[in-house]
Write a structure and sequence with these properties.
mainly beta
């Protein structure tokens, strides 16, 4: 019992706590260091001379000049005429020693007309053409007709039709099961008797 009382007293004293001591803050004097008086260094500004490089001297490329030839006069013409294939062309051209060119060509078109082109060309006006048409347009019908080829006559193969016998399956003879009709006995309930009221 005494031990229990002693333990309770210790617990009460421990719960109250002890006051914290108040210590004064120490005050230390700030040290004063003398500022050194050093003169600021004066560095001279560097003076670098920009190197003077001579400009490269490349020789100009010497291109060979294209020789200029005087225009050579010429004259030519040609023609093609094949009626079965409807090819009918003619072309004629003439040039003088000053570069002046004149010429004309004729072309048979598929619609039956003939296209006639007269042209001239030089270094000043360029190419100038005058186009004309001769004849009337018609429906194009080629004169060539391919030869008629007859279809090859191959004999039709005669294979006999196979005769397969019809399968004869016996009809299954199943007898329907006969179940007896159930007979349930009629329940015999007693007739209720109600009391008579007066």
């Amino acid at each position: 019992m005494k031990v229990f009382i002693l333990a309770a007293l210790v617990a009460v004293v421990a719960s109250q706590g002890y006051p914290k001591p108040q210590y004064p803050k120490p005050q230390y004097p700030k040290p004063e260091y003398p500022t050194p008086a050093y003169p600021a260094p004066a560095y001279p500004t560097p003076a670098y001379k920009t190197p003077a490089y001579p400009a490269p001297a490349y020789p100009s490329p010497a291109y060979a000049k294209t020789p200029e030839y005087a225009p050579m006069p010429y004259n030519f013409n040609w023609a093609v005429k094949d009626d079965p294939s409807y090819n009918d062309y003619t072309h004629q051209e003439t040039a003088d020693d000053k570069g002046y060119v004149t010429g004309s060509y004729r072309t048979l078109l598929p619609d039956g007309r003939t296209q006639i082109v007269d042209y001239k060309a030089d270094d000043y006006t360029g190419y100038v053409a005058d186009v004309k048409y001769d004849g009337e347009a018609k429906e194009y019908k080629p004169a060539y007709k391919p030869a008629g080829y007859s279809s090859p006559a191959y004999p039709s193969p005669a294979y006999p039709s196979p005769a397969y016998p019809s399968p004869a399956y016996p009809s299954p003879a199943y007898s329907a099961p006969k179940y007896p009709s159930p007979s349930y006995p009629s329940p015999a309930y007693p007739s209720p008797k109600y009391p008579t009221k007066y």
